[in-house]
What does this fold into?
Amino acid sequence: KNISHEFQMYGVYLTEALNDTKHYGLYIKLAKNLPRKTLEEALNFTKGYYGAKNKARVFMWKLTELKSKKSL
It folds into this structure.
């Protein structure tokens, strides 16, 4: 794939870290539009969450939770 921006590379990193290669576009969009700190928090939570069958689902849940806390 053609990766010409840093946020695209980070989106691919998220995709591979979460083992969700069907949704490259989603993670690239998240990397472009959301603060890196928020994405890192959600990813670190997901990596520490053992026993998750679907890491991508846990990541999206935590990301939604973090975004709602920051908007309050």
In short: The two ends are 38 Å apart (CA to CA). Residues 41 and 53 are 19 Å apart (CA to CA). The first helix runs from residue 6 to 17. The helical segments are 6-17, 24-33, 36-48, 55-71.
